[in-house]
Records
---
Amino acid sequence: MSNSMINSFKAQFIYFLILLSCTTLISSTANAKNSAILIYIQDDVYLDYKNFVGERDVLTIKNFSGKTIRRDVVDMIIAQQALQLGGFPYDFSYAPGKVNFRNTKMLQNGDLLISFDSYWKRDAEALADKLYISAPVIRNGEYVAGIYTSPNNQKVLQIKKLTDFTKLTAISTPKWRTDWQTLQDLSLKELVKENSWLSMVRMVNLQWVDFMLMPFNSTADQSFTLEKIHLIPVPNMAIVLKDSRHFVISKAHPQGEAAFIAINKGLKILREYGTITKAYTEAGFFVDPVKYKILNQ
């Protein structure tokens, strides 16, 4: 066994011991206080999260491969592990539903501690007077998105170059500043505004709109399926979204400052041990740049 392999094994083993000891200590403290904090989660994300985690303790998960893993689910797991490693002594309970942008108002008012779905830096900075912004969980340049469309939309599936977008329509929301600006820069035939993510995927599935940008999925063919919705990415083509993503925490929540300090400590540990990159890579979100043509570089 090489020295590099031995060192990697040692680092992972030390990280596991740190996480295990924190799990025992903080879980017992939180249970004693009976202090679970309620977090609101988009219903489809929560379903995938529960299917992926199952009966496991989320704080000890090290392998991020699976059928229902995706960027949003990795965000949820990384946030909880970072908070725990940083010494935040609380458990969480969840309320699923169509929460989407309602969460932002709840964060501003202090009714929600943290968004386990990371925010683009541009979106977070617009609310910096109300929210703490963590260190980046996804760094600038790492977010490479697929061009997702209906399997029957040959016009999109035949994209080869940047100028092909002038014949196509896309859908997003200006509330996602980075997504919206990226699509505007593609010189589309039309950019449709829709604030509901579920409505976006339905409209693309019905071919009312040609495509939307989505993180690559962990399925074998990287397709996305939700009930009767089935979308696939343009093969070997991608778009880079030039911004970083961060966890945002309410400044008005009683535990806001403590959570902010803890998550940054934990993210630093996870970054040093390579856990963050490993997690998003195993989930299929980070893709091999050699295999993809980035159309907007």
---
Amino acid sequence: MNGRQRINTVMRRGQPDRVPVWCLLSLEHILRHGAPDGALPQTIEELIAAECSMTRHYHSDGLVIYLPGYPAGARVDDWIRSALGSVPVGDPSHMLDRADPEQWEPDVAHYTAEQFYSSRLARETLGENYHIGGWTPDGFSSAIQWFPRLEEALVATIRDPARFQALVRYFDRVNAAWARAQVMLGGLESIQISSPYSGSSFVSPALYRRMVLPSVQYLANAIRDAGGFSYLHTCGFISDRLELMAETGVDGIECMDPPPLGDVTLAQAKARVGDRLFLKGNLDSVNILLQGTDAQVDEAIRQTVLAGKPGGGFVLSSACSVAPSVPPERIQRIWELAEELGHYT
């Protein structure tokens, strides 16, 4: 099997020839190690080249594109500087009380094929042997990020839940259009649904069921109808909501941060939801890949392969994104041990 076949098999919760390897790389890690001399890419072509270079270098079976919807020749240097820097906090005075999301319906974008040149360029660069995916936020996270301050957004879920839910529904429609376009116009095979504010550090299981679950469910259905796979990305502490995440209808989940970053073991996730979801994870990106000894890294990879491998439905990966300063040799080591330990036949 090639990498594309491996991952697509896993996303159907099947068993490939070996455990696929597919780490989510932080943008800065890609720029440090994939761009020529670490230079900041100026155009979308240069950024895609760096992403594809790292995919090949790490023997990854797949790639998530940072900017899947960019036209030919588009400048990306300002976006990269913004993404790597801090976002200024704005004036909150115009926020929830003045929001009228039902009237924003006409603002949902209509996309053209030209806008997804970057996605098609990645396929042209890598060829047919790699799984290539995109991403979208869920509507709940978009609504949270619409506020200039996180605490204000969380208070709004309590102070005016009906209006906040209307805001979530608006962003659901926006994000579903974006996700469908990535699959149908960009030819991407899967969509990561980024849901960073839905762990137990932010919302209760009851609020998750009321606001987050319907949002992710809406997106998962839209992606499936467009012909793509979906998987849910939530960092941190999620053990108390694994079954709720499975109820969303996504094909899989990633992160499952282990202690101390989170509270999920891979064996636990496999036992509780592995019959309904493929699992992608869950090497500790900080305490192991960044700060651990070489021996600790090897042992963690071995244990993760052994926990996730049985029965298929598993992608070996960092839990969250690979930090900028993680040595490239450690990411290469993930593939080396998958080759040694991850074969099913």
---
Amino acid sequence: MTVYRRIRSDGQAGFEVANYASGKRRLESFPDSASALDRANQLARQLSEQEVVAASMTNEQAADFAAAVQTLAPFKLSLPSAASTLADCLKLVGDLPNLHAAAKFYATRHKQAQRKPVAEVVAELLKVKEARGASLRYLGDLRGRLARFAEAFRKNVGDVTTAEVQEWLDSLRLSTQTYANNRRVTYLLFEFAVARGYAVDNPVAAVENVTVRGGEIEIFTPSEVAKLLAAATDDFIPCLALGAFAGLRSAEIGRLEWSDIHFHEGFIVVGASKAKTASRRVVPIASNLAAWLAPYAKFEGLVWTGTHDAFYDAQQRTSAATGVKWKANALRHSYASYRFSLVGDAGRLAGELGNSAAVVHRHYRELVKPADAERWFAVRPDAAGNLIPLPASASA
């Protein structure tokens, strides 16, 4: 080992020792010759021990050494330097699998993503889905749910965190099914963003997932639906009436046009493009439904001109104004229950609902009494205007 005597910038003598332990020459400085000599002797012993180990290496060990040196060559690292760094890392994380996981996590979090606002990613996703032939019903569902998400998150999609998405979903106070639907759609959005390099990971993956279980069928009483209709705004009355007295789903109402309601013939056509099951069906117009819809007989275009979110908000406002608790899908369940009590024909009702007779039997048989059913279909506006006469079969 060589010890060098140097004159420092302050004029005092200093000493340096050349350390080759890492495979490269590195000078270590010491204030006096005794310290420098001690370090030199220490390094000499280490080198001596390494030479003994090297001399006693088997052919297999020598091959491993050569392979390790070759593996490190692209990174311009010596084997001793790499081994020293690896040992330091293992002290922090415990073992190689944890070290590998930590490295992957670091690489993911420091990956550069193209910054793009949530609203722009939503628009791009919808455009791609439309180009790939997604149904109008599916596109409408995506558009409605993601529009609300984009409104809440006016930031780059890559900056959205799991905690923020969880807090947003919780704040909506959704039913279990609606929560699951919104989580599914936002998960899809971030998978799209990751695939296109707008985000490094999907924050929704760690958002709480819920199990949707079939619960008891909830329905409104005749007095409850009368209160809801009395409190509803003019543009929302037809939506409530169509759900309560024709059994249409809210999504179907959102796609329904006034031209689909054949007032004089006494039926509503729910086209395949507007029905959940993608099959056309015809629903009779009950006499009380005709009374509720009569003021709108000359309207054109969509029955509901607002958005999916506005429809939901209208439900909540109407519920709050009356004190009648809103029950999930209760308008449709109510129609099915009261209608089945009157007609007693599962096949006929299944056709009106767009369900199977088995579903009708399982959920709606003997749920209400005929007298309550008669009161349900007797709920009418105080002043219905000029009522449209219906064929006898339409009100049966």
---
Amino acid sequence: MDSTMNALEDNTFRSVWDALADTPEEAANLRLRSELARQIRALVERQGWTQAQAAAHAGVTQPRMNDLMRGRLSRFSLDALVNMASACGARVEISLQAA
């Protein structure tokens, strides 16, 4: 086995976000964006909105809503997701916990 395979096998991560991110701060941001996007998708599905309807509620274009529904997180900042959730009538809360 080559050294690359051994290095990959030795790495363990607390979450997929820790594996993808270069820093703990970036992992935290990815984790929050993922959770917020998941909850916005769930809200859209509960409301029975089409992507066009959801986009109108969220104040974005339908292609942008499609990006969200397909999980393209890299295209959304945390601020943008908070704004979209709020525009859809949701209240966003953040809590801190000890690491």
